[in-house]
Write a structure and sequence with these properties.
The protein is 27% helix and 38% strand. By secondary structure, it is of the alpha+beta class. The strands form five sheets. Strands 8-7-13-4-5-12-9-10 form an eight-stranded antiparallel β-sheet, covered by helices on one side. A six-stranded antiparallel beta barrel has the order 18-19-24-21-20-25. α6 packs parallel to α9.
Length: 424
């Protein structure tokens, strides 16, 4: 989002509005970015466009012909229908934004992602915002620097330079850079080292604040139920997103604890770590070979691999729910009011009642209320109409109620019967 000028939200006509659609709309609005909506698969689904537009209106996305200010395109990626109009809309929006860059300057831009290529090593995905990036440039990102050895464009071709708005992969930075960090090209290695030293000094000055906040966090964590996971993904950006998702799922009682997160395939050390820390293995777009699968099965360790964020969210929610202790909720089923008090066997008292609300059942849990104060909690031993015992009685009826091990009744006391319901 830091390097985005226009947000193009593509909606499949057969899927309609999905959770990720709403996420994208909210993110674009929060960042004050112009939005273009492209409704795809019009060759497949006919007559559903108005329904999607109506749904989008709930989120303030209204097309121009409905009195709004959002550009809409109806397209088919399969047949190519509407694509030319969509490109025209993107160009029109770009002209209105008056987007400009200076190709003669040294490149600056944003890190989009990082990953490991087994042939090339660390690959850093970035997009140039201004200037031109050239092979051999000295690049600084965060507290890392390196020389650009290789530039690979979106078509996987090796190029010698790249320009604004072009996403590329580069080889040259020796570590995984943080997603969203800004990068700059400097004149030489000396300048790069001076810039990095100033960044490191700033981090040292802020270290005490960081340590204190961590200490407070750890103190809170001690009271939590911890669910340990080992996380493997195909790219660094997925780790960043999943960390945020997991933090949002944690609550005061249960914490999903990421023991280890890294790129690449599952290996023997991941399974050994899972055994030692009682962790679940959670993968996102990763692979594992037969030997690893076999070892995991022998050790009774399940490898959970997913392709979408929402599958992971559902999986983690189910884990949390399985660990959650149920809350007991009291559901009032009936209210009786004591109108008379009678003597029963062995001088025991029985409450003559009118059922004011709902239903009163034998063996129900009850609370006796006097002047808005609970004076007793117990159970109904029996319900009588004259000398007959009954199992339940409904609103508007009269009966005698015997409370187990209690008979200190007074006129106008209320007997509230309730059921206990378990809720997650």
């Amino acid at each position: 989002i830091k390097c985005t000028d226009i947000v193009l939200i593509v909606i499949a006509a057969d899927d309609g509005i999905m959770p990720q659609t709403i996420e994208a709309i909210n993110l674009a609005k929060k960042s004050n970015l112009p939005i273009i909506i492209a409704i795809n698969k019009i060759d497949k689904i006919k007559g559903k466009n108005d329904k999607i537009i109506n749904e989008l209106a709930k989120y303030g996305i209204v097309p121009e012909n409905w009195g709004g200010d959002i550009l809409f395109s109806f397209i088919s990626a399969k047949t190519g229908e509407g694509i030319d109009k969509l490109l025209e809309q993107i160009n029109l929006q770009a002209e209105m934004l008056n987007l400009k860059s200076d190709f003669s300057k040294k490149a600056v831009g944003i890190i989009i992602d990082t990953k490991i290529d087994h042939g090339k090593g660390f690959l850093t995905s970035l997009i140039i915002i201004d200037g031109t990036l050239k092979k051999g440039d000295i690049i600084v990102c965060g507290s890392e620097w390196g020389k650009v050895k290789l530039i690979i464009d979106h078509s996987m071709s090796i190029v010698n330079e790249s320009y604004p708005s072009c996403p590329v992969d580069i080889v040259g930075l020796s570590n995984l850079s943080k997603i969203g960090d800004k990068f700059v090209v400097v004149n030489n290695e000396k300048e790069a080292k001076l810039l990095i030293n100033s960044i490191k000094e700033e981090k040292v000055n802020n270290k005490n604040i960081y340590d204190i906040s961590n200490l407070i966090l750890e103190m809170k964590k001690e009271k939590n139920i911890k669910i340990n996971i080992i996380l493997k993904t195909d790219v660094q950006g997925s780790i960043e997103v999943l960390r945020e998702v997991i933090n949002n799922l944690n609550n005061e009682k249960i914490e999903i604890n990421i023991i280890k997160s890294s790129l690449g395939i599952f290996n023997k050390s991941d399974i050994d770590l899972a055994i030692a820390t009682k962790s679940s293995l959670l993968g996102f777009n990763v692979k594992y070979d037969y030997q690893i699968k076999k070892k995991a099965q022998l050790e009774n360790i399940k490898i959970n691999n997913f392709n979408t964020i929402y599958e992971i969210i559902d999986y983690l929610k189910n884990i949390i729910e399985s660990q959650s202790k149920p809350q007991i909720k009291e559901n009032i089923i009936g209210v009786a009011e004591i109108k008379k008090i009678f003597k029963y066997e062995n001088d025991k008292l029985i409450a003559g009642c009118v059922i004011k609300e709902g239903i009163i059942k034998k063996n129900s849990n009850i609370k006796i209320i006097r002047k808005n104060i609970i004076i007793h909690e117990g159970n109904i031993e029996s319900i009588k109409i004259f000398k007959d015992n009954i199992n339940e009685i409904k609103e508007g009826s009269e009966c005698g109620i015997i409370i187990k091990n209690y008979d200190n009744f007074k006129i106008n006391d209320q007997i509230k019967a309730y059921e206990e319901i378990e809720e997650k």
